[in-house]
Structure formats: C-alpha cells, structure tokens
Amino acid sequence: MRTKTLTIPTPDGQADAFAAHPDRDGRHPGVLMYADAFGIRPVLREMARELAGHGYYVLVPNFFYRHGPTPVVELPEYIGEEARPAVVARLMPLIRTHTAERVLSDADAYLSFLTAQPEVAAGPVAVTGYCIGGLLAMRTAAAHPGRVAAVAGFHGPVGSDGPDMHRLVSKLTAQVHLGHAETDMTPETLGELNRALDAAGVDYTSEIYPGTVHGFTMSDTDTFSPSGLRLHWERLLPLLGRTLTHD
To answer: Helix, strand, coil shares of the chain as percentages rounded to 5?
Structure first.
C-alpha cells in the first residue's frame, strides 16, 4: 500500500489531502472520499487504506482547508460523550461557512486533481462521504454527471431538506447508495427521500442501518457500530465494483 500527503490547488488556496493506492504498478479507479466533520485523522486514513486495498486510488481532501491544514481542530484520540460538545462547538462555525458555492468550486478542483494523477485510470470516478461528507458527495455527483459513476453517503444529512433534496437528486446520473443511521432518518423521511429518487429515475439503494446512531462508521467515536461499519463495506464495495472499470 502506498500513501502520501498531497496539496490540491483550488481557487481559494491549497487544500491538503491524504491519498492511498495499491503498491502494484498500473492505474486504478479513482475514489474521492469526503471525511466527516471531524476531518482527516487516523481512522479516516485507515478507511482510505482499506478501500485502496480493494484496488482503488482514494483521495481524502481537507475540505476545511480555508481555516488551516489538518488538523484544523485539535481532536482527542477518542471522541466520547464528554469531548463531543466542545469539538462540535469549534466545528460549527466552519460548517456554516462551507457554502454550496464553496462545495461546488472545491469539487471541481478535487475531481480535476484526482483524475490527473498518474496512478488513476481513465474514465469516471466514484465519490463517497460520511456525515456532512455524504452531502458533499451527493452535491459533487449531481454537479458532475459525466464524471461520477457512483456515489455513496453514510449517516449524512441527505433528505433533511425537502425542496433542496428534490433539486439535488433530479440531477443525479450516478448509481447511489445511502446508508442512514436510525437516529438520522425516520421511516417517513426515508420514504419521502426514496420517492424523490424514484421520481428522478435514479438507480439507487437507500436504507436505514439497524441499531445505528449518527457517526456509526467512525471507530474513534462513542457512536461506532461494528455491524454498521461492516454493512457499509458490504454495500460500498459492490457498488464500486459494478460501476468503475478495473484493469
């Protein structure tokens, strides 16, 4: 496995990023991975390495780069009940300034950088994301229908805003998987989201993962669910396998 820290040029500055890809020669399908709001840290690097081990070039950008390089906010090794409120309080101003315009401008830069890497195969890429990163992934896929073949989001806020949700999914051409936490999505809201995806003709799966709470994929938090993380891989890997071209 090869890993590296990279710098992505954007219209607003330099975004630091982590990348992982197989150590064998050749070119590999590209995957843009958006972290959760806690950002790039050991658990995200491990998830990128895990995905890269299945034959992908995985790029994880620091989407809060306007506020500084990783770590933008100092984090404890374990984000538990006591630490979480203070960490979230420091992150909320950053989240509020990360407008849709910034998301789309950055997405252009990230995708252009990813597809220009010599280890990345020609053709469409996939985008995946966690928490707020799931929403960023969906917005990236909707804005780049010809470049993104698959998009996945886990315990993200997709579906929390009706009109915006309908506009977003109407632009999708990628295959989609959404894995929701029980605490993030009621069956009624899930039904509304899935009806919007149906109406837009999207090829998708969208489900609530049993027994999970928000953040269930992140092993450095008190919301981690081993079964939820396993199900995440069981859904994500087949999606990438059937949509991206392998040598």
So the answer is: 40, 25, 40
Domain count, the chain: 1
Per-residue HEC secondary structure of 128-146 comes to EEECHHHHHHHHHHHHCCC
The CA distance from 14 to 145, in Å, is: 25
| pLDDT tens digits, one per residue of 181-240 | 999 988 999 999 999 999 999 999 999 999 999 999 999 999 999 999 999 999 999 999
Tens-place pLDDT, residues 137-196: 999 999 999 899 999 999 988 866 556 777 889 999 999 999 999 999 889 999 999 999
Domain CATH number, residue 23: 3.40.50.1820
Domain encompassing residue 129: 2-243
Peptide bond into 9 cis (omega under 30): no
* Both structure tokens of 228: 């939820």
